[in-house]
Design brief:
With about 270 residues, this protein is mainly alpha-helical. It has helices at about 5-15, 15-25, 30-50, 60-75, 80-100, 105-115, 120-145, 175-190, 195-225, 235-255, 255-260; strands spanning about 150-155, 155-160, 160-165.
Length: about 270
């Protein structure tokens, strides 16, 4: 089937999902940036190839048909709109990718499309509390090493006679989401295998948790030292510094030849 015809069918068949996606993104435009970046990246990877090769005139409709059938089943089952929207977005992105490439998308493609959806609230709901406990534990350990008397009770910490709670922003979900998004984009560009991608994502999780603990520990240490003289821009500055440090460390690790070298088939 011709890619254009297949794309039109996909858009029309999943119209309700696209309408929900557009409404969701108009209500929270910042959540649409990841989707915009994802399609911009796919376009940047596709355009140079289209200049050298003509677009595919035929795409095997087997997988798109199966995805359309699954979308219809999810619609009939009244599945969460975000799942239907993710499937519709994945279907369209797959068609566009196959129109310009002769091979199936790499493993990172599927994760990138899913993560590009507005999933931050869901991630915060599922992983927020466990990550807050981990961050609080690591923060207490870091400050104890600096000689700061601090204790933890669940997601509450007591330092200098004051008790503070690790709230949702302290979980580091936003930093983790951004770093995973960057890792998936890098993996898509370098065509990492599933095994290498899994290791890269595990590394990203480790770096994100460590960077978030360092961020919170730095803020608590600065608050303890500065008291009421704490500047209003301190939280944003420390957060940006922690994210930059994590991104640089992650980039250095992913530039390791083991990651970027092609995977050799076993003899």
């Amino acid at each position: 089937m011709h890619p254009i015809a297949l794309a039109v069918i996909a858009i029309l068949a999943c119209w309700d999902s696209w309408r929900w996606t557009i409404h969701r993104l108009t209500q929270s435009p910042e959540e649409g940036l990841s989707l915009l970046f994802t399609f911009a990246l796919l376009g940047a990877l596709t355009m140079p190839r289209l200049r050298r090769h003509t677009p595919a005139s035929h795409i095997d409709p087997t997988l798109p048909a199966a995805m359309l059938a699954l979308h219809a089943a999810l619609t009939l089952a009244n599945a969460p709109s975000i799942i239907q929207s993710a499937l519709a977005t994945t279907l369209l992105a797959y068609i566009l990718y196959r129109a310009a490439h002769d091979t199936a998308p790499p493993a990172a493609f599927w994760g990138l499309i899913a993560l590009a959806m507005p999933v931050l609230p869901s991630l915060q709901f599922v992983f927020g509390y466990p990550l807050r406990v981990v961050s609080a534990t690591l923060t207490v350990a870091l400050l104890n090493l600096q000689g700061v008397p601090i204790t933890r009770d669940g997601t509450y910490v007591t330092v200098a006679g004051q008790t503070a709670q690790f709230d949702a922003p302290c979980s580091g979900i936003a930093m983790l989401w951004a770093l995973v998004l960057v890792t998936l984009m890098a993996a898509l560009i370098t065509h990492l295998s599933l095994a290498k991608l899994s290791l890269a994502l595990l590394l990203t999780l480790t770096v994100a948790i460590a960077a978030n603990a360092l961020r919170v520990a730095s803020l608590l240490y600065a608050t303890t030292m500065l008291g009421e003289t704490e500047p209003p821009w301190l939280h944003e500055a420390v957060g940006l510094a922690a994210f930059a440090l994590a991104a640089l460390l992650l980039a250095a690790c992913l530039r390791n030849p083991w990651f970027i070298a092609p995977t050799r088939a076993l003899p």
